[in-house]
Design brief:
The protein is mostly helical. It contains 6 helices and no strands.
Length: 141
């Protein structure tokens, strides 16, 4: 019984690590898509636009990872692989949604994100990230 608990904790830890790696990749992706240093934008300059965009990315990754874990039905190896694969797919699709939204709207979305003044376009982009994540999550089942 105790060994079962340690085994389950180990499985949870590996899923957690995969989730953390995907969130780190999401951070890098948002940093690449926006001008300037994302860490400085959020933690030093307290830029709300950048924080909303990053938060939507992190939430989106969490939605996908949680769904992939739930869909794994106890198959640890396959579950880890699908979690990583669907997580990467979600990140790619979030990046594509950012680029498409940028192409079909006035101005440069990356520049809007780093403006000090809150901008409604950031909420639209954040909603796009969450919507893309929900679509990927539902596709897992």
């Amino acid at each position: 019984m105790v060994s079962d608990v340690f085994g389950e904790v180990g499985i949870a830890a590996t899923y957690g690590l995969v989730g953390l790696v995907l969130m780190a990749l999401g951070f890098v992706l948002v940093d690449v898509l926006t001008p300037g240093n994302l860490r400085e934008q959020i933690w030093v300059q307290r830029n709300r636009n950048a924080a909303i965009l990053l938060a939507s990315n992190v939430l989106g990754v969490g939605i996908i990872v949680a769904t992939a874990i739930a869909a794994s039905q106890g198959n640890w190896g396959e579950g880890l692989l699908s979690t990583a694969a669907y997580g990467i797919l979600g990140l790619v699709l979030m990046a594509v949604s950012f680029v498409v939204l940028d192409a079909v709207t006035p101005g440069k979305l990356g520049e809007i994100v780093v403006e000090e003044t809150p901008h409604p376009a950031v909420y639209v982009n954040a909603a796009s990230h969450i919507a893309v994540s929900a679509i990927v999550a539902v596709a897992i089942f």
